[in-house]
Amino acid sequence: MEIDAVKIIERMLIATDCKNPAELARLLQTGPATVANWKKRNMAPYKEIYNISRQFGFSMDWILTGKGEPKEGKIQVVSEDDGYFHVPQYSIEASAGQGTLIEAETIDQHLSFKESWLRRSGINPTDLIAMYARGDSMEPTIYSGDSLVIDKTMNSVTSDGGIYVINYDGELFVKRVQKQLNGTVAITSDNKNYGDIVIPSSDLNTLRIIGRVVWSGHPMI
Question: Do 93 and 191 have their domain in common?
Fold first, then answer.
């Protein structure tokens, strides 16, 4: 799906009945510069769209794409009063193999986590999104078809490393990512049949960190 941030923000204004981006920023408890940055980077602010969908009853798919009925298939299906937070899982695959392009960004399901457990773990539930893994390069840690829960605020790589979903040269991967002392970034697989990738500091502009994987799981049947 091709993102058009200008159109997305226009639909966010309609859904919230805000008159302008400055009013929208105040409603979302953020600054006008943040909204301007969405336009500049042509990015979709998924967390804010999700919250608008729940609060105002508008379809998240409509806000993202303009397709379908504005209030048909809205996200607000399960109450959060039960103490659980329901993380939206998108129809996106992050490759644990040779890489795959984003083809869809609709919501397939919600993954429910005890909100108190998330906060005890230092995780803000509203910072989470979920997607699928594809491929075998991260086995036995992550299997093809696993659900991946990603904290979008953990979008910088440190020397400690971790498992991240990354956009590398236009494709999505789930890999171990670690910053090296010489400024390079190492991308490695748990399946030793796959080789490592080392990105020199001069090419780091080809790497975008989507977020760190904080949970993964798969069906048992």
Answer: yes
Q: Which domain holds residue 31?
A: 5-65
Structure tokens at 121: 């773990």
| CA-based R_g, the chain, Å | 18
* Whole-angstrom distance, CA of residue 96 vs CA of residue 87: 22
pLDDT tens digits, 1-55: 567 889 999 999 999 999 999 999 999 888 889 899 888 888 888 778 877 887 7
Structural domain includes residue 136 = yes
Tabulate helix, strand, coil % of the chain (nearest 5). 30, 30, 40
Q: State whether residue 74 is helix, strand or coil.
A: coil
Q: Which residue has the tokens 């400055």?
A: 22
Residue 71 counted as domain residue: no
196 contacts 160 by C-beta, under 8 angstroms: no
Q: Give the tokens for residue 170.
A: 């236009």
Amino acid (one-letter) located at 205: N
